[in-house]
Amino acid sequence: MLAVYLGYLGVVLFNRYRRTTTGLAKLRADRPDETFDTFFERLNRPDYDRTLVWTVYTAIRSLAEGVALRPYDDLVADLRIDRDEVDEALFDGLKRPLGLVDSAAAFNANPHRNRRNTVGGLIDFFANHPKRSDQALAAPSTPSALST
Hints:
There is one protein chain. The chain is mainly alpha-helical. It has two domains: 1-30; 33-148. The protein contains six helices and no strands. Helix 3 packs across helix 6. The longest helix has 29 residues, at 2-30.
């Protein structure tokens, strides 16, 4: 019985691994020349702070194994990022560099809290989240010059 269970578990894990790696490999192959500048143009939000967008973009891209991002990419379905990573690691990792208020009230007051399923939606969330007044955004090393 244990052998059957372990065999089944092996098949499930292999299929998940294959689905994940082939999906990301296809996205990577389909987007060889896309850069942050391409992403920022597609985001079509020139009013957003470029530093904020760059910070969120690089954080998500590192979770997505270097795949070039598009604003409409679904974090779970397209980029295979676990929802817990998005909610915990990403928010916890970005709240200090972005100077975000860390409270349940601020989270619940954010009008974009239910749209965090795409890359663009997550950027909308961070762009509209209350900021702490004692911390300014740190400037990245020229995001417009970076082409990754």
